Amino acid sequence: MWIALQRPGNVGTRTYHVIEGVPPALDTCAGGGESMPQSQLVVTLTDVATGQPMGAAVLHEWRSRHAVADLGLRHGKAIFHQPSPFEPTLSIVQLENLDYVASALIIGPISIGTADKQCPGPAAPYNPAKATNQGHAQVDRASSPPEGHGTADQFAVGDLSGKYGPVAGHRAVYWHLLDPTLPLSGPESVVGRMLLARGSDGRSLVCANLLPVSSRPLTRARATLDGALRGSITITRTDQTEDPLGDAYVDLGLCWQDGRNATVDHNWHLHSVPLAPGSFDCAATKGHYNPHHVDTGPAYGCQCSVHAPLRCEAGDLAGRQGTVSVPNCRTGLARYHFADSHVSLSGPTSVIGLPIVFHESHFSMPRVACANLKPL
């Protein structure tokens, strides 16, 4: 067993401890009988000097991640499997009838929206803008080697043809390989984003969302905005009884329809009190949703981040994922996709029914739009 610890005052680093001599009841790989159900196990940390508890967490079994992008009978599919965040992803790509016009196969940064009647474009490969705990950093494509050469870390996370080999001049491609730079969990997960074949002119030829594979139906909820701020926020998650450590996939499409120019740095949060039917009084939603009573003292602002999501309130989406910018509707929607394992759609901490609130630009406090999340 291994444990990763973070000091509250230094959230950018972790210390790792390997614990030997784990009792067989805790070891699911141990032979000679069944192990204890892990939902009954709790790991506790105690201050040796004072004997006071410092923290506790329920021990869950990590479930392997599976995802598939189905491009239909004519074009085939791409299947991805990752046993754990510490192992490479198995990529199985079988695409046909590309008609020799595709120039690249990529995973884009956003998903295909339910209102999209054609593949969004032009699209660039998903290329995380900054390093996170998973160790991936933005890649300058101009500095990457030719397609199919070099190593996977020299290409953007979503640049499949760069990492796996060229598709230009091919009618079909078949790949079966391990990719150490394609996460299926965590903040840089590619699950929920779109897989697309792109032509030499940058136009998207065929596309499909990369959906999580689960034995149970996905749970979805959506908040719809139709005031000065127009758009929707859709949250999708696998069944949490099947995979309590799974991610929620948050998709946003936003724009101003009241004539104002583009704005930047809007905080957005889940708040604790639902809007009354027919009400648009965002002030009535009270404070951020914080079911785990996270300490919001003076150090909160510098501790809550994508690097330390457990130091964030469950409703602090901006703290974990960053602020959003909003254009005028005449120029189109601002599209975002986030993976967030701290948003629940079932159980006692479900956010369904709660309001999503958007604040004024430049990190300002005034609330400019809000809507309740409704089940789909």
In short:
The chain has three helices and 22 strands. The chain is mainly beta.
Distance between the termini: 39 Å
Residue-averaged pLDDT: 87
Q: What's the shape?
A: globular
Q: What order do the helices and strands follow?
A: EEEEEEEEHEEEEEEEEEHHEEEEE
Q: Structural class of the secondary structure composition?
A: mainly beta
Number of helices: 3
State the low-pLDDT regions, or none: 25-36, 130-134
* Total number of beta strands: 22
Strand content: 25-35%
**Computed CA radius of gyration, to the nearest angstrom:** 22 Å
Strand order of the largest sheet: 9-7-6-5-12
Could you describe the 3D structure shown?
This protein is mainly beta and 376 residues long. Helix content is 4%, strand content 34%. It contains three helices and 22 strands. The protein has helices spanning 160-164, 300-303, 317-321, and strands spanning 2-7, 10-18, 42-46, 53-58, 65-70, 76-82, 89-95, 102-107, 173-179, 194-199, 204-209, 211-212, 219-226, 229-237, 248-256, 263-266, 268-270, 324-326, 334-340, 355-359, 367-372, 374-375. A five-stranded antiparallel β-sheet has the order 9-7-6-5-12, with no helix packed on it. Strands 19-15-14-13-22 form a five-stranded antiparallel β-sheet, with no helix packed on it. The longest helix is centred in the middle third of the chain and has 5 residues, at 160-164. The protein is globular. The chain starts with a strand and ends with a strand.
SSE blueprint and pairings:
Layout: E1 2-7, E2 10-18, E3 42-46, E4 53-58, E5 65-70, E6 76-82, E7 89-95, E8 102-107, H1 160-164, E9 173-179, E10 194-199, E11 204-209, E12 211-212, E13 219-226, E14 229-237, E15 248-256, E16 263-266, E17 268-270, H2 300-303, H3 317-321, E18 324-326, E19 334-340, E20 355-359, E21 367-372, E22 374-375
Antiparallel strand pairs: 1-2, 3-4, 5-6, 5-12, 6-7, 7-9, 8-10, 10-11, 13-14, 13-22, 14-15, 15-19, 16-18, 17-20, 20-21
